[in-house]
């Protein structure tokens, strides 16, 4: 996914957050802040993505 220039950064970030969420990374203290810093997005965006995954409103792939 990282090499595909046709996929937006937003979609890449959503997919990364989803993968980390599925692996339980966000159960670790301060993981949300660390991921947000690495992806250059706000922690609020990470929380938004997680809420969307939980509600089934995930739009990770741009087609």
From TrEMBL:
GO molecular function term, any single one: DNA binding
Domain Transcriptional regulator DauR-like HTH, which positions? 3-51
Q: Which UniProt keywords apply?
A: DNA-binding
Instruction: Return the InterPro entries for the record.
Output: DauR-like (IPR039446), DauR-like_HTH (IPR039445)
Source domain of life: Bacteria
**Would I find rRNA processing among this entry's keywords?**
no
What protein name is recorded for this chain? Putative DNA-binding transcriptional regulator
